[in-house]
Amino acid sequence: MLAMDQGVVEEWLSEFKTLPDSAVSNYAASLKEKGSLVPALYKVIRENYSDLLEPVCHQLFEFYRSGEPQLQRFTLQFLPELLWSLLSVSAARDPHTSGCIEALLLGIYNLEIVDKDGQSKVLSFTVPSLSKPSVYHEPSAIGSMALTEGALANHGLSRVVYSGPHLQRENFTAQNRFEVLTFLLLCYNAALSYMTSTSLQSLCQLSSRVCICGYPRQQIRRYKGISTRLTVTSEFLVQLITGIHYALCNGEVDLGSKALDDVLYRAQLELFPEALLVGNAIKSSMHSAALKSNNKEGARSIQVEITPTSSRISRNAVTSLSIRGHRWKRHDAVDLGSPDELMDISEVDEGVWPGGVGPDMTPPTITISNSVTTLNLGAKAMKKCRLGGRSSKDKDKEAGPLTTGRAASECAELSIKRLTLTSSQSVPKAGALTSLTRTASAVFSRSFEQVASGNAPPTSNHTISEAGRYSCSLQEDGLGYLSPAPNHTQRSPSISVHLGSDL
Amino acid sequence: MTARKSGSRLETEIERCRSESQWDKIPELVRQLSAKLISNDDLGELLLGECKLQTYLKENPIKQGASPRGPRPKLVEVRKHLTAALDRGNLKADYLQEASLLMAKLCYVEGEYRDALGHYGRVNLDDMQLVGAPVYRLSMIAEAYATKGLCLEKVPAASPSLSNKNTGSPSSNRSTTDREQEIITCYEKSGDIALLYLQEAEKALSAGIQNRSPKPGPTSQDLELGYFLETGLQRAHVIHFKNGNLTRGVGRFREILRAVETRTTQSLRMTIARQLAEILLRGMCEQSYWSPLEDPPTVSPLDDPTRQGHTQCKNYSLSRRPRVYSGENLFCPQENTEEALLLLLISESMANRDAVLSRIPEHNNDRIISLQSASVVYDLLTIALGRRGQYEMLSECLERAMKFAFEEFHLWYQLALSLMAAGKSARAVKVLKECIRLKPDDPTIPLLAVKLCIGPLHWLDEGECFAKMVIDMGEKAAEFRAKGYLAIGLVYSLKATDASLRSMQEEYQRKALGAFQRAQSLSPTDHLAAFYLALQLAVSRQIPEALGYVRQALQLQGDDVHSLHLLALLLSAQKHYHDALNIIEMALSEYPENFNLLYTKVKLESMCRGPEEALLTCKHMLQIWKSFYNLTNPSDSGRGSSLLDRAIADRRQLNAMTLPDFSDPETGSVHATSIAASRVEQALSEVASSLQSSAPKHGPLHPWMTLAQIWLHAAEVYTGMSKPAEATACTQEAANLFPTSHNVLYMRGQIAELRGNTDEAKRWYEEALSINPTHVKTMQRLGLILHQLQRYSLSEKVLRDAVQVNSTAHDVWNSLGEVLQAQGNAAAATECFLTALELEASSPILPFTIIPRAL
């Protein structure tokens, strides 16, 4: 390490310590101007044995803890390099463990998994649904949707958790390592737009190395570092791919596509469906995309051309849309008996219908296939559909009037549509279900009441309240349960048993 | 058109034809018009000029990117008409403006950009009324703005001949910026007005159809955007992106998309929705995102930093804007993935509508187009949903893609992978079969199928077929060849465990060993090959050899949990219990939440440290269980809040189930019930693998199975301490979860025995066997009791059956020896005792098969 670099880093270390709180945001903005600092820090991280590593890690953690977004991003840009440093050391079983890097990464992780109030953070997002109006569409214009189990379950907008809650971690173990690292990459990916190209390059390198070390491809890539295989998880690879995708589209074409290939190679060897799925999709979409990256200076250009607005598909081709008319015309003609190709195709067009009620009856499913309705039940089924429709008229009005034009023939489709709505309304009606759940939870609470009432400190407030909520049902049941008597006389934990009337 | 129309009706008719672009009817109408009044001649000239110009453009459309050049002979006539209309000056102001606009358009078509700009300068487009204007005029204004933009792009900025406001100053940097801004504003206005025009035109059209029914007429054909409107709608965002100004480009995209759709804009909307989704997924992240209803950030990392100055916001207003989607409770995305998903779902529904279904050769091109536009959307959907772990929803989306998928490998493969990721194993295997047919050379596909077959499905015969496919590829399979051998070895190994005949067991074990050896020699650096070889050797009780390979595996992968576990079990088989315990504790320091290791720890502790320690471990397990399932979220399948909630919800299924120990919610049962109703080992191994994030997904029953296991282990420790009351309580906990589990019944039998209640114990054991007729431990106990009751031949029968099921259970051999001895069959008894002795010398503390075997 050059003395100059060392000087830059040392100056950076001392500078921040003396900074008053009020000057932090100005300081954060000024960091960009220190051109030689970032490369010098990369050097410190790469040279694992440097004396500066510990203070640097400490300062990076201070930056992260300050809560100032720009400082946090400054720390985050080194994340790929830090991850590689950690993984390569642990793979090489180097006795000189990179304790301070571990501490820094765990520190960031433990900061990120909780919100401002110290509660476990749960990252969630809303799955949009076409059946609800949005700023970009109106459900009535989309046309009827397939009546699948999933469509029913998602009839409304559902909020879905994609990460968290996570446990606080004090140290890395083989079991939690990738859980922590995956979450850290998630944080990194959330700030991708702010990352420098050096950081993106480092991410691509990390991905390649993690995936090929110890495999025959290592020779092809001519990487001479460690040669032991690193264990990976599918989720970790998916997060890497997300970052690579961004790099690939924002100037790092060579490194990015190499990294993507390497990750896919590893995902194939490990038979990870998730990583293969996303990786394949990116590869195939890059083929068709007209993306071009200009020069390397952070030029993030996405090319868009003027495209003809008329449909490129000739009018006389049979499409899903055009075939819809066919079916309903036939229906009007009361031509119910003849099974023909068109029926089959039109059924596919409505989506794949669930084959039957599975052994697990999770959401109530309604399995009606078009062809069954028309062929076997005929008029009767249609009547039923209309009955269903009446009860949900109000709902239908909300959805807006149907597009005009095919008025007469549309009526059958309308009733199917109504059916979709009724069935979805009936979902929460299953009252018996909730009561079952309640008893189930009562039984459940009993089984770990033992733990909750024990002398062991509960892990969080959350669990206490939970135990409290269930405790009343526990008394009602009056079944036997275990509770450990606190260790008083001797060391052995004698577990006393209370027996209820049932036994 | 036989009857003469009155003046106002005639005008309406003309207006309608202009709005609907029915230029061929204009000459006839003009003839009627001029027959009415002399002063209409000028209007007639205007209309004729317009209709000829439009007809010309329809016949010779301007292509994007190509610029028109020079005067055309056909347009001479147009110029004549328009000059006539303008020069006489008799026209009403509105018509005069129209004539000027048409003249400017003509100039553009002829390449006279400066002249065109001159005309626009005279008209002052911004003064033209949008409110109450007839539909055709909206289109005219929109085209005029677009044309003006085009002209401004063509004419250099410094040109002095411009009659515009911003001229005069010498060309400076600032004026080019202003110029660019002016161009963009022209296009944006043009786009907005074009959207408004299309909405109005569609409204007029549908009103027209209603009025003129029942005769439908040929008018229902779609409006077509010409070159000018297309340019107006799209050129603004193209310029934004060319300038690296992502913020404004995205803003423009959103404005277009928020306008209520018309038939004509459908295709444009689909393209733009897809492009915007691409940008959201490729160029944005959570932190740089802003919602469509928010103002964009003033400084954004998305914009080209060298051109920061361009990020001014939209700086014009129109007297009338296109209608946007509105109403209460409109969903507005708050995150880039949400917005991308919404846009992609919209594009998907459109792409799906356009799926070309006919397979006749003439439609080949159409089919390719529809396939391409759909597969781009599906790829983006995969990226968006994959990031968020929503594989279940993804598999449903991809299922809808199947109408495009005939012989399309990519779509089939993606569907198979999504089904696999969503845990729909049985269907995934079926789809993978199709993928193999489409791409028989790819070894990954059959390997994925084997993974499912030996994992969640336990379809060993199918698994064998798939594994053989990989092996048959030979050298072609390259690095996957070893994997193929590993796969088939696992299939044989599992078959050996399932086989009920001893000869079959041995046959399969031999085959498995051979396969693992092959895999190991092909890929000596793969720790899995060495590990499974060791495991197989251990199962066939070749302990020293197994130890050698497990050490090799650990050298390759020092922190592999299964290798460590196997090492501990091997040490326990050599009766080095303390060493084994040390290894387990070491492994637990790396995998503190691995229940499989903890079960072994309980066993070892009660062996070398006494039952109190073991009980402490049981308690610790309960704590881990609670914290683990209280917090963990199933990132895999998504819906619902925490795994615990889902598990609670699924509890209602338990009571209805007869064989709870292994039902997989999707496929019915993991094992055919004929093989064995239930075996602790398998339940255990599944639990163990469920703790690893890379393992296949499991149903929500697993937490409960684990919990029941913990209680049963505690019960066992209590029986070992001769504390029947405590043991009963623990068993009751497990019984509350799984009342019909044979393990629970077996434990109850043990407790009854402990209490000296032989009859009751016998009853429990018989019940356990009625649920699982091949539970060896129960058979052994039942045999012993029958022996005590002096029913020797029945006892012998039961024990012989038990030996058939598991020939390595030494205590069964021992009991059998005792029974035979009691019957006076000393020679046979000796042999049994010797076998028992020999087996006991290599018997691990828990069966080796508790270690999961998966690819």
Structure, explained:
The complex is a heterodimer of chains A (503) and B (855). With 503 residues, chain A is mainly α. Among the domains of chain A are: 3-118 and 170-288, no CATH class; 123-163, no CATH class; 434-498, no CATH class. Chain A contains 23 helices and four strands. Chain A has a two-stranded antiparallel sheet. Chain A has a two-stranded antiparallel ribbon with strand order 3-4. Chain A starts with a helix and ends in a 5-residue tail after the last strand. Chain B is 66% helix and 0% strand. Chain B has 36 helices and two strands. Chain B has helices at residues 7-19, 26-34, 40-59, 73-88, 93-109, 113-123, 135-154, 173-212, 227-242, 246-258, 266-283, 336-353, 364-387, 391-400, 409-421, 425-438, 444-457, 460-472, 480-498, 502-522, 527-539, 543-556, 561-573, 577-590, 595-608, 611-631, 643-654, 680-690, 702-720, 724-737, 742-754, 758-771, 776-788, 792-805, 810-822, 826-841; strands spanning 663-664, 668-669. Chain B has a two-stranded antiparallel sheet with strand order 1-2. Chain B is elongated.
| Uncertain parts of chain B | 1-5, 159-171, 213-220, 632-699
Outline the low-pLDDT stretches of chain A: 290-301, 328-503
Distance, first to last CA of chain B:
79 Å
What is the CA-atom radius of gyration of chain A, in angstroms?
A: 30 Å
The Cα radius of gyration of chain B reads 40 Å
Number of DSSP strand runs of chain B: 2
Give the SSE string of chain A: HHHHHHHEHHEHHHHHHHHHHHHHHEE
Mean pLDDT of chain B: 82
Helix segment tally of chain A: 23
Largest interface: A-B, 148 and 171 residues
Family (chain A): Belongs to the Hyccin family.
Pfam families (chain A): Hyccin
Subcellular location (chain A): Cell membrane; Cytoplasm, Cytosol
Keywords (chain A): Cell membrane, Cytoplasm, Membrane
